[in-house]
Design a protein that fits this description.
Residues 1-22, 75-104 are annotated as: Disordered. The longest helix has 22 residues, at 67-88. This protein is mostly helical. The relative contact order is 0.13. The protein has helices at residues 26-38, 44-55, 67-88. It is elongated and about 80 Å long. It starts with 25 loop residues before the first helix and ends in a 16-residue tail after the last helix. The chain is 45% helix and 0% strand. The protein has a domain at 26-83.
Length: 104
């Protein structure tokens, strides 16, 4: 039984269609660009290809991503970066100075 008890829950206007998806925010564009820079990607075609791969569709530019897609791409780029960082070694292995235990 889905009818309202007192008629209060009946919308006065018919339901509207889904609103347009939110466009990508400036801070999301900055995060994506920083993630691409951190990977050492300077070639625009390589950057575009990686973003398209994670977005799952072709794009003319970063500004054509929706906010939701941008969050998904940022998240997947972060996961990928974590995998490569772990495979290369730890920060402990990359330290420059010897510690007291190294001098023993």
């Amino acid at each position: 039984m889905d009818t309202p008890l007192f008629g209060d829950d009946v919308p006065s206007s018919p339901p509207t269609s889904n609103p347009a998806p939110a466009q990508i925010a400036d801070w999301q564009v900055d995060l994506l660009r920083n993630a691409l820079d951190a990977r050492g990607l300077t070639d625009q075609q390589a950057r575009k290809s990686l973003i398209e791969q994670h977005a799952g569709r072709p794009l003319a530019s970063l500004r054509h991503l929706t906010s939701e897609e941008a969050l998904r791409v940022i998240s997947s780029l972060g996961r990928d970066a974590g995998r490569t960082q772990r495979s290369e070694g730890s920060l402990w292995d990359e330290r420059e100075d010897d510690t007291w235990i190294d001098r023993l």
